[in-house]
Structure formats: C-alpha cells, structure tokens
Amino acid sequence: MLKKLFVLSLILVLGFSFSSKEKSKIQSENIIVLVIDGPRYTETWGDSTHAHIPNMYSQLLPQGVLYQDFRNTGFTITNGGHTAICTGVDQNIDNTGKEIPQFPSVFQYYIKEKKVDSTKAWVITSKDKLEILANCKDSLWHNKYRPAANCGLSGNPSTYRKDKVTMNHVYEVMKKHQPNLMIINLKEPDFSGHTANWKGYLKGIEAGDKYALELWNTIQNDAHYKGKTTLFITSDHGRHLDGVKNGYINHGCDCEGCRHINLLALGPDFKQNKIFTHQRNQKDIASTIAYMLSFQMATSKGEVMMEMFK
Ligand SMILES: [Zn+2]
Ligand SMILES: [Zn+2]
Question: Closest ligand to 239 CA?
C-alpha cells in the first residue's frame, strides 16, 4: 500500500514537472498570423508543381510545418474565416463589416492577461471591413482590451487598399511598436478572383507567396524578433471547385474548394520540414496561440496543435 502510494506520488510529481518544463520550453514571445485571402488548395499546395508558391515550397516549408488538410469548418466568407482564426469560434457573421465577433479574440485575451497597451497587438488588413476583428459583442469584453488596428484605406468603412501598402504598414508597426501579436490580411488573390480575372488571381497567389518570404526574412533580420517569433501563414476560405456554381470566381458554400485551405507554420518551437496529413481547422490557431503565449482562452472551441511542437 505504502509502495503504491509512493509510486503514485512519484508519477504525479514527475508529471507536473514534465508539463511545466514543457511549457517553459516555448521560445516564441511573438506571433504573427498572415492571412492570404481566398486561394484554392488546387492552386497552392494541392498543385504538385507548386508553380504559384515557389518560395513557400522551397524556402519556407523546409523551416516549418505544413498542414495539408487544413479547413474552414464554419462560414467560408472573409469575415467568418478571420473571426474563426482570431476568436476560435465559427460564427455566422455578417460579411460587410457591420457586425463584430460575438466572442473575444486572442488579441483581447492577450492584452488583458499581460496588462499591456493596445500597441502590443495589431490588426493590419488590406480590407477595411476586417477592423471588426478589433472588438467583440461579449458584454464583459466589448470596447475593452482592444488591439490597435490599421485597416483598409482609412478604417471601417472606407475601401480596400493595396497589399503592398498593408505590408509597408506592417513593417512600420514592427519597427515602431514591436508588437507581440499581429494578424495581417492580404486582399489578394480573393479580389482578382471576384473580378473573374484568372491571371490576376494566380498573380495574387504568387504575390502572397513573395510577401510571406519577405515577412519571414524581415523577422530573421530583426534583432528584436529573430529566434522568438512564430509565423502562421493561412487563409480565410478557399473558392468553389470548378463545376460548382461559378468556380474560382466566388466562394461561400460547403464545397471542398471553399473548405479546404492550408496552414504553414514556422518558428523556433516547431518541427521543420514536416507535413501533417490529418485534419485541423482555423479555430485551432486561436487555441494554439493562447497556449504558446500562456493565457487561458475559455471561449475558444479550438484545440492546441501539440503535434507541431519540437
Ligand atoms: Zn476572403
Ligand atoms: Zn464552394
């Protein structure tokens, strides 16, 4: 009996010290989520030639992990996808910028928990309507712990702006405020897709691929960010498969093209050159951010993607 008790307490002690040790091993102090708006899997990682994402394929994948079966499990529209990533909840949200998320985001949790000011978490987006990500309806959180935002031409509502302008703001903010948490939205390739411009749509994917590499290299060349920054590269939704409604021109339904997106993640805490084939979804990004930056996120419905850690 005594021996049994001893073994049991030994297991408990070892278990606790193991889990706290594991947690303290997280090196990332900063997390950036880059959302490339609306590419289909068939033109990105599902294309075996990787013709439109040469940089992510040859330069970034060797340094990170890829989820081949990453999903939007909720509403395959821009504001729905971004809301799932930031709040960990699939919400049937208005897509025009007139409705804010129901639940608090990783930004609000982070600012509250760490007692930092709004410039330590940023929402920087080419689409003006995504300023909705900087607030929520929950009465305990509404208008509180809000991240800084820089969205569209001049906030919500105004109009979209060029992705190049958005990336310039990102680099300025990184220099000036050194935020710990940031989401970036690039309006392409979604914008060209909606104008039925196939060439522009492909160019938009290629531009996102270049911005992803440029951002990662900027992180590696910045003394403040180097070695302690995680980058998630993902999308808000895909687009209809060919043969579903008007194909690549639109999105918003339940088809495989709209649901199937991807996630590439890089940082000091993740495995490298690793491809996962099991399913994960956008909500898991919110929970994984909370885990890595050590705060509780009671309202997220996601799971921590433990398998990606070294
Ligand atoms: Zn979108
Ligand atoms: Zn569809």
Answer: 2
Q: What is the pLDDT, as a whole number, of residue 11? A: 53
Ligand 1 center to residue 79 CA distance, Å?
7
Provide the pLDDT for residue 288: 98
What is the Å distance from ligand 2's center to 171 Cα?
A: 34
- Helix axes 283-292 and 78-87, enclosed angle (nearest 10): 30
Helix (H) / strand (E) element for 185: namely strand 181-186
Determine contact, residues 293/109, Cβ cutoff 8 Å: no
Beta strands 260-266 and 30-36 are unpaired
pLDDT tens digits, one per residue of 150-191 = 999 999 999 999 999 999 999 999 999 999 999 999 999 999
Answer yes or no: is pLDDT of 17 > 60: no
Reported as a single tens digit per residue, the pLDDT across 234-274 is 999 999 999 999 999 999 999 999 999 999 999 999 999 99
Nearest in space to 268 (alpha carbons), one of 227, 220, 308, 222: 227
CA–centroid distance, residue 255 to ligand 2 (Å) = 4
The ligand with the least distance to the CA atom of 160 is 1
Task: Find tokens 């885990």 and name the residue.
Answer: 291
Confirm if 221 and 177 have CB atoms less than 8 A apart.
Answer: no
Distance 75 CA to ligand 1 centre (A): 11
Neighbours of ion ligand 1 (CB under 5 A): 37-38, 78, 190, 236
